[in-house]
Structure formats: C-alpha cells, structure tokens
Amino acid sequence: METLVPAAICHHTRIRVATERATEFIDLTARIEALAGEAGILAGLVNIQSLHTTTAIVVNEHEPLLLADFDALLARAAPKDVPYRHDDMDARTVNLAPDERSNGHAHCHALLLGSSASLNVADGRLQLGRWQRVFLVELDGPRIREVSVLVFGEGAR
Amino acid sequence: METLVPAAICHHTRIRVATERATEFIDLTARIEALAGEAGILAGLVNIQSLHTTTAIVVNEHEPLLLADFDALLARAAPKDVPYRHDDMDARTVNLAPDERSNGHAHCHALLLGSSASLNVADGRLQLGRWQRVFLVELDGPRIREVSVLVFGEGAR
Amino acid sequence: METLVPAAICHHTRIRVATERATEFIDLTARIEALAGEAGILAGLVNIQSLHTTTAIVVNEHEPLLLADFDALLARAAPKDVPYRHDDMDARTVNLAPDERSNGHAHCHALLLGSSASLNVADGRLQLGRWQRVFLVELDGPRIREVSVLVFGEGAR
C-alpha cells in the first residue's frame, strides 16, 4: 500500500479568444474547469488574468438579458459619446500606436471591472456557486484577445 | 537540533452566513484571521471568494456611517427602481428559478464590487492595514450565503 | 549531472511610497518585476495588496491623459463635494482618529477599484500584456503609503 503525498502543481496556459462585437461577455468557465482538471489539482487556486487594458475578468451569472443590463451599467458609468482626454490625438504624446482607437470609455470600463479573478479549488473541484460563471469581458472589440490562466496548488503524486 | 523546513499548507473552508437585510456588510475579518491561524500558515495567501452572483467580497473600513455611504454609492450606480431586462419575466428564457427575485440591480452591484479578495500572509500574520476589514457584501438579502476561504502557503513542519 | 527539482518560493515585501497629490496613480510595475526577479520565481503568482482603505491597486495603461480620464470617472461616481455620512463628525462615534480627514469620497473610490491584484508568473516572467502596468492609486493624499507584495510559486533549486 502506498501513501499519497501531495505534489506541488503549477501550470500556466494562455487562452486565445477572437471576440466578435464591441462589447461582449465570453464565458470561459468550461475551459477553466478543463484546465484545472488536466492539471490534476486537488486543492489550490486558479488565477484568471486579462492581458489587455480594455478587457476585464468577472464572475457573475450567464443570463443574456442580465449581460445586456451590464452593458447598460457600463455605458452609464462611462458613456462612449462623451470626450475622453485619452482620445484627443492632438494632445496625446504617449503610447501612440498605429492602430489607435477611440477607446477612453473602454479603459474606464476595464478599470471598474478589474483585470483578474482568483477562484478556489477544493476536493478536486473549482469552487463556483450555482449561478457563477467566469467571463472575459471584451470592452473594445472585435479583437484577438489572450487570457493567462495559472493553476496552482496540490495534486496527488 | 532539528532544522525547520517549510511545509506546504493548503486548507479550504466554507463559511456560512445568514444575512438579515436586503443590503448588508458582514465583517468576516475575525473568522478569516482564525482560519489562517488554525492552518498554521507563516507566509502565503488567503483567497476569500463569494459563491453567489448577488454578493461580493470587499476590503475597507468598518465604520457604520461609511457603510451607509457605500449603500448610497451602489444605489446611485445601479438604482433598484429602474427597469432591468434580467427582471422582465415575460422576456426571460434562461436560468429561471422558482424563487426568482427582481434583482438586476443587485447583480450590477456585485459586478462592480468583485467576487473575491486575496490577502497576503507574512510572519504568521494576515497583512491588513490599520483600518482594513474584510466584508461579505449582501446585495439581495436576506438569504443564507456561503463564502469559500482558501489558506495557501508555507508553515513550519 | 543534477536534476533541477522545483523549490517552493514565498517571499513577502512591503513597498513604501510617499504620494504627492490628493489623487495619483503611482506605477509600481518596475518594482514588482524586480521583486519577482530577485525571488527567483519561474512560475506562480504575485499578489499586490493595498494596506489602506483610501488607496487601491489597479492594472491598466500608463498614459497620462488616460489617468486624468480615470480621475474624472471616479469624481463622477463619487464626487468630493457631496455630503458623506462618514464625514459628519457630529454623527460619527466609531474609528475617530486625531488626523481624521473628510474622505468619504476616497473610500467610495477605493471600494470601486479594489484592494489587490493578482498577476501570474510563467517562464520566469511576470505575465503582463503590452500596455498593462500595475498602479497604486492614491485617493486621499498626500500621505505615506505601504503596499504588501507576495511572490509565491516555484523556482529552480
């Protein structure tokens, strides 16, 4: 008979997503659960991190009408049609890219929503409540986006 | 004489809370500190995660009048008395539960506040500034709620 | 020939910052990258945590005009010149300090932005997208502030 001793697990992956709309909630839950399962983690953390400044990572319910409410909330907090100094190309001198978009509102939305979410793993399962899903939030699409996922904890050797 | 070598610690717990009001800030700090202490962690992380889509985890000051200011802030950002598509039961087709509440505003509040907080541990102590406290935020109560807490790091063997 | 086996790394540091303005975004990216490098971490997490209730940690772009847009966003969400119950010193009975400031708005801003950010490390490098930078956000300065940084993961022994 052998005794199971915990082994440290630390797996990193990047998920690539082609978004299709200006604002969009992309449900990553199944992919996150698969990554945690493949890594063989029994207990620990999964940290899901946006790699962009106009996307966010959030955890909430996947109900299409609610996602429309979230769009409306963000549009109220930082409307697309008011002036942003970031979009004043006569005044800007920093970080000017050839493909620069008018996206001050999208940066504001990302600031409010946050760039990462940490989820616990216990008994070999991602801890998510009944209605909780993990979303990449596109705020200035469509674009090709990447999400960094770290699965970190203990497995059975 | 024996040398202390670090041992990996990874303890998971669920905290159960019966909330009493529609919106409420429940101070979990003492319980989180006790869980970190019981796990014997010297350095590492504590990740505190909501398991619901109408609660949040935040870190701020426990001053009752400030908590009333936070209520007012959330009510301004997403008022309870404006229409939410999530609450239009004639239009909804997804995730309909028997106990469905009119709670679009509460989901919006949760989205803005975030579903988890990660706190560092060093020298055997949870790193919290003078006024920092950890709260479960009830946004659609009263209900029975659960919080997932992972204590993950190094202890002395 | 020796085999490299992973060694657990768990390093904690406090960064001290003297802020100079009422609201200010202090770019900590170079310091965070240096701490991850010095710790010798190959894969894992860096958790950056505010130790105050009127500062926040965010990840976004370091473009000066955008930071002015963020100031404007916060001022709209919780203006400085409306009354906060937290600032009513006739009503307050809790947590009264000799150096108490009128800062209800700053607490509201901190609540919306969040107190920590977790960044992944892979292949020995902090995972940050092209425009991503890590900021301590001063919301009630100028003050002396401290940030707690935990580098936690695997290194090469």
Quick check: average pLDDT of chain A? 94
User: Could you list the spans of chain A in which at least 5 consecutive residues all have pLDDT below 50?
Assistant: none
- By helix and strand content of chain A, what is the structural category? alpha+beta
Oligomer: homotrimer
Instruction: Estimate the global geometry of chain A from the Cα principal axes.
Output: elongated
The helix content of chain A, as a percent range, equals: 10-25%
Q: Order of helices and strands of chain A, N to C?
A: EEHEEHHEEEE
Number of helices of chain A: 3
Widest beta sheet: strand line-up of chain A: 1-8-3-5-6
Q: How much strand content do the residues of chain A show?
A: 35-45%
Describe the sheet with the most strands of chain A. 5 strands, antiparallel
Q: What is the radius of gyration of chain A?
A: 19 Å
